[in-house]
Amino acid sequence: SKAEMGHTCRGTINLATANITVEDSCNFIISNGGAQTYHLKASSEVERQRWVTALELAKAKAVKMLEESDDSGDESVSQTDKTELQNTLRILSSKVEDLSTCNDLIAKHGTALQRSLSELEALRLPPDSTDKIKQVNERATLFRITSNAMINVSLHPEDSTVGFHSFTSVLSTVSPQACRDFMLLAQTHGKKWQKSLQQERDQRIRLEETLEQLAKQHNHLERAFRGATVLPAGTAGTGGSGKDLCCPAKGDLSDEDDDNNEFFDAPEIFPMPDVMGHKRTGSNISGTSSDISLDEQYKHQVEDTKKEKRTRIPYKPNYSLNLWSIMKNCIGKELSKIPMPVNFNEPLSMLQRLTEDLEYHELLDRAARCESSLEQLCYVAAFTVSSYSTTVFRTSKPFNPLLGETFELDRLEENGYRSLCEQVSHHPPAAAHHADSKNGWTLRQEIKITSKFRGKYLSIMPLGTIHCVFHSSGHHYTWKKVTTTVHNIIVGKLWIDQSGEIEIVNHKTGDKCILKFVPYSYFSRDVARKVTGEVMDPSGKVHFLLLGTWDEKMDCYRVQLGTGDNGAEARPRAHEAEDSRVLLWKRNPLPKYAENMYYFSELALTLNAPENGTAPTDSRWRPDQRLMENGRWDEANAEKQRLEEKQRLSRKRREAEAARATEDGKAGLSGGDVPLGVLPQSLTPLCPPGTPCDPYKPLWFERKKDPVTQELAHVYKGGYWESKEKQDWSLCPDIF
Questions:
Q1: What span, in angstroms and rounded, lies between the C-alpha atoms of 722 and 154?
Q2: What are the residue boundaries of the PH domain, all occurrences included (predicted)?
């Protein structure tokens, strides 16, 4: 393609530097000096000569193009641009010549004027005339001094107050040689800059065309594959699943018919479970009746959620999506600030995804029972890795929570813990999480999600520290999350990778664990998604080695310390005996038909189930998320826009009220009742000057400095579970 003209592609020979030699009557050789050689054979001597002649002509043309590109005086701009540039330079040259002429004239006339005044002064004239001549001479001298002074400042014609002649005297000092030098530089370098700019524009256009072409090719291959693998009509019902025959028919459309090709999900449609009681109806149903039916169909689940958890959700519908038309304008932007349709989402919020970290809470239960701090650290490390196991197939993004949105998970009776999350900031998006267990541990974290779309991949960087405290021993562990990367955003099948290092520190004992998430490499022989770790004491001595994958399991090996010949400790020897291996964690299998339910785990399937008694700000009551879960994506998109607009209006109202309060406070302090420099805390500015300030404060969390990490973080201040017991939600804002 044209995009390959600007660089060397592997397997190609640049004709401008190629050697073309004839071997015999039918064979000839093309080489570039050793790195690449082609041995070509023609069907006859005549055919060989035609090829050699054509290649020689092409080589001459390539050499000429190379010389033209190296010549700084030539360039590939259009003839119109050349003419315009030459006209401009011609005008500048004529203006410089005019200035040079004015310079000579003013110098000549100024000298003559000075000479005439001196001659008049030498004549014997009446006293009155002599005084007049001296006065004129002084004014001429003053005029010259003033002109010289004006030369040293940047005087503009519109600012001049001394008339046209004064301005002419300023212009007369312009050096014609300097102007000619400038004109010469403009002619020499202007073309280079314009050529570079044009090349950048062409390269960008070629890149867009190449990406679009790749997307078309991928779509065409995907349709061809589906058309070849569709089962006959008679076998569609076998195996408990059916094939949707509508998608292949739609895929027969030619790629050339429309530039904005559509992308389709897998056409396999499994029957929706009857227990959900939900069936897609026509789109002409009113919003009111839809909401009523939405509540009714889950009423039987809300009655007794503690005893029986749901195991199915409505299957993901097969909606088409114009992926490229949305993503091509998002390169390099922060993902949280891009308005995305629910087609990219899964029917869970970020708060619920954060709660999924507790899926393997039993690891912390076992860690709480450990007497050895090093063994306890092994289980904490396994718990850290386990939080990524649900992401291996989860390529959809969760809903961005609204400001003030909450999510609770009360599993105190079944599993011994309960959890609360709250969205404490919108820009940047930040969520605070607190979980308590009666089995002897507390987990808390505040996570800010930053993400960048880079064209081929999406990087998600969680910022914030996770704290785990064990009650009986007082051991306090902290760690941070690694970077998540979503690959093949435009072309190919989406896949997720985790990469980076995690340092888990026991702040009481000084023990430390270093976990390394090895990034996937096509050329590596290592196991995919590999994780390695070392558990060491404060002196740096390794006691346990961890090995596994973040999507399957983690094993622990006790390090056997040997002794060297000189009595010093030798390097740790691990894997010496299989009996030293301990299985710390293994991933739970996914539910049946998980591929049609967004690859949700058993815990994830229960998180959005309606539950009585939760706060009105709970994610379970979010209408756009509920509509999407039920397959009504068009209505969900409309509802999502309504909620986001409502959130924007609420923020503007808070900012306006804060601005008024600040002005009133300044007016009240102007009387001098308060000492200078002392402001009440309510009037202390929280935002930089000149920027709108959102005075929002979370309801269940408060911002404090952590005594261990010295970081400012939102910590649970209490009151939620008491309010739930009283069913007093009067403090909750109306966000839905």
A1: 73
A2: 1-60
Backbone angles phi, psi at 216, to 5 degrees: -65, -45
In angstroms, the CA 54 to CA 171 distance is: 61
Peptide bond into 267 cis (omega under 30): no
**DSSP reduced 3-state for 253:** coil
pLDDT tens digits along 418-455: 999 999 998 888 999 999 999 999 999 999 988 877 77
Structure tokens at 66: 């190379």
Break the chain into its structural domains and give their ranges. 15-63, 324-561+573-641
Specify the range with the lowest mean pLDDT, choosing from 5-14, 54-63, 308-317, 588-597.
5-14
- The CA-based angle 360-366-369, given to 5 degrees, is 155
Q: In the Cβ-directed half-sphere of 567, how many Cα atoms lie within 13 Å?
A: 0
Q: What is the mean pLDDT of residues 92-112?
A: 71
User: Counting beta carbons within 10 angstroms of the beta carbon of residue 201, is it exposed (0 to 12), middle (13 to 18) or buried (19 or more)?
Assistant: exposed
Strands 512-517 and 712-716: unpaired
SS3 211: helix
Report how far apart, in Å, the C-alpha atoms of 50 and of each of 56, 220, 257 are. 10, 38, 39
Residue 558 contacts residue 580 (beta carbons within 8 Å):
yes
The chain-wide mean pLDDT, for the chain, equals: 76
Q: How many CB atoms lie within 10 A of CB 359?
A: 19
Integer Cα distance of 703 and 212 in angstroms: 47
DSSP characters for 138-202?
A: HHHHHHHHHHHHHHTS---GGG--S-HHHHHHHHTTS-HHHHHHHHHHHHHHHHHHHHHHHHHHH
Structure tokens at 64: 């000429």
Distance CA 714, CA 444 (A): 9
DSSP 337-356: GS---GGGEEEEEHHHHHHG
The alpha helices in 522-681, defined as continuous H runs, are 602-607, 623-629, 633-669
The answer, yes or no, to whether residue 622 has pLDDT greater than 80, is yes
The CATH number of 324-561+573-641 is 2.40.160.120
Q: What is the DSSP letter of 514?
A: E
Can you give the C-alpha Rg of the chain in angstroms? 38
107 or 712, greater pLDDT: 712
Whether 314 contacts 272, CB under 8 Å:
yes
Q: Is 57 helix (H, G, I), strand (E, B) or coil?
A: helix
Does residue 556 register a pLDDT over 90? Answer: yes
Element (H, E) at 436: strand 430-437
Find, among 213, 241, 217, 243, the residue nearest to 230 by Cα: 243
pLDDT surpasses 60 at 284: no
| pLDDT higher than 60, residue 688 | no
Cα 712–Cα 714–Cα 718 angle in degrees, nearest 5? 140
Q: How far is CA 298 from CA 272, 277, 279, 292, 685, in A?
A: 15, 8, 13, 11, 47
Distances (CA, A) of 652 to 187, 384, 648, 663, 670: 53, 39, 6, 17, 27
Q: Which two tokens stand for residue 221?
A: 């291959």
